[in-house]
Amino acid sequence: MDRRDFLRMGLATVPFTFAIGCRSHQFGHVIKDNQSDMVGSHAAGAETFNPLIDESVAKLLGRQETQFHNVSLNGGPPAPKRICFVCVENRSIEEIGDFKEQIYEQIDSQILEAQMFEPVSRRFVDAALYETRLRPDSLFLPENMRLFMAALEQQGQPFDYLLYAKLTSGTTANNQDYQRDYLLTLEMVNVHTGQYDKESAKVRKGYHHTRAGKWYNYNPFTRQS
């Protein structure tokens, strides 16, 4: 038996495994206003954050506007209240990356559209925090609050409310599938009276694990039917 026949017989007795696949490619398309947002396969995205923002802001500002309307019936229309939106805190299990800035800007824009409120520009807010060397979570200390308010008043930006946004999450696992509940909470504090208001919105999202492809055992020397 020569070497060629020996190798052919050896290969015939050893099937090997291979994966069937295809070349991947990437492309993009513009999503129109009447089309749904894409759903993130591994983490939250626009399909999660946009409804959270819309619902929480609408509920919080809607209740405040109702209170202002009741006051206006008794003593004339009140002046718009100024809101100092301090920060977006991410306390969820996920890194939200550039969506943190998106969340801030969307909430700030919706405050600007409300008739009873005026937002303080973020540039003034950041400048005041830098000047006073204060963190957003330290403003509830009376001395820190006075320093921060004085810094903004010097810039011609007095305000009536502090606003915080906080994103949290909770995960329920079912083998390799899991559900994640996203909660966006808005906390607003009247700096003159200390009155506190709070609203939140929740979106539940499921993540599912599937096999990427099939594996086949193939023997090249066996007739395939």
Secondary-structure map:
Elements (H helix, E strand, L loop, with lengths): L2 H10 L3 E4 L26 H30 L5 E10 L8 H15 L3 E3 L2 H11 L9 H13 L6 E14 L2 E14 L5 E12 L7 E4 L7
Parallel strand pairs: 2-3, 2-4
Antiparallel strand pairs: 1-7, 4-5, 5-6
Describe the structure.
By secondary structure, this protein is an alpha/beta fold. Among the domains are: about 120 residues, Rossmann fold, CATH 3.40.50; about 30 residues, no CATH class. It is about 35% helix and about 25% strand. The protein is built from five helices and seven strands. A five-stranded mixed β-sheet has the order 3-2-4-5-6. A hairpin with a 5-residue loop joins strand 5 and strand 6. Helix 2 runs parallel beside helix 3 and helix 4 crosses helix 5. The longest helix is centred in the N-terminal third of the chain and has 30 residues. The C terminus is likely disordered.
Give the end-to-end Cα distance, rounded to a whole number of Å.
30 Å
Provide the structure class.
alpha/beta
Catalogue the unreliable spans: 215-225
CATH topology of the domain at 46-120 and 159-207: Rossmann fold
Helix content: 25-40%
User: What is the succession of H and E elements?
Assistant: HEHEHEHHEEEE
Order of strands across the biggest sheet? Answer: 3-2-4-5-6
Number of helices: 5
Query: How many strand segments?
Result: 7
The main sheet comes to:
5 strands, mixed
CATH class of the domain at 46-120 and 159-207: Alpha Beta
From the coordinates shown, what is the CATH architecture of the domain at 46-120 and 159-207?
3-Layer(aba) Sandwich
Shape by Cα distribution: elongated
Mean pLDDT: 83
Give the amount of beta strand, in percent: 25-35%
CA gyration radius, whole angstroms: 29 Å
